[in-house]
Amino acid sequence: MQISARRINSTTIFDVIGDIDLANSPEIRKALLREIKETKTPRVVMNLLKVRYIDSSGVASLVEGLKASRDAGTRFILFGLSPAAREVLQLSRLLKIFEVHETEEQALA
Amino acid sequence: MSGDLLLKVELRSDPSMLCVVRAAMERLTETFGFSAAECRSVTRAVDEAITNIMRHTYGGALDRPIEVLCQRVPKRPGARGGEGFEVLLIDCGPAVDPAKLRGRRLDEIKPGGLGLHFIRQSMDVVEFNRIGDANQLRLIKYLQAEKQD
Predict the structure, then answer these.
(1) Where does residue A94 fall: left (phi above 0), alpha (psi -120 to 50 degrees), or beta otherwise?
(2) pLDDT at B146
(3) What's the CATH fold of domain A2-108?
């Protein structure tokens, strides 16, 4: 799994490549919480176009990011969900609580 | 063992091995005859079950043994579905309290507690047994209908 960050104005976009599972979800969590809690970025966007699989620990990291952004009064957005990623959020009944878009353009609109 | 062995894997409790197991499960379930959605579902269940062993049973230790046995089992008597894909996950950790094998409520928005929920949603049979000094999790998914020759 690789994660990198891009900054566009007041938005940080995390580009994630690969599977998110127990081996690397702590890295995702750390990057998200640093950006939301410490840097206090107004809008944090997760690009999941190249993420084929997310396990429950990955979902937990995304939920932590969402809760942190709610506490901070900022926005946390997901886009480019694969069928497997979408399924896992649907199964956990969490899909509706996230702001989800198909494309980066929509996420940044 | 009661079925035809399809795959036997012994791994250590290192999370970097999870992707290897997923790759094997994706191909094996496809070969077995499951639909694409069912393949993802069974793979997810096995991945989550092994993750639970690594995190909770072995407490994050990287060098403990986990055995994965996959076998073909007969269809359920009287059931309309086809034969079953059984996965046995065996670890040598301390005994697990079955009362703790409950997923969290889904109306709570909080991290954690989803793994067992995914497993139960994906599989037709989820059984936990303590056999000697080992924990054994038995998962079975049945084909929805008999394959036509």
Answers:
(1) alpha
(2) 53
(3) Transcription Regulator spoIIAA (3.30.750)
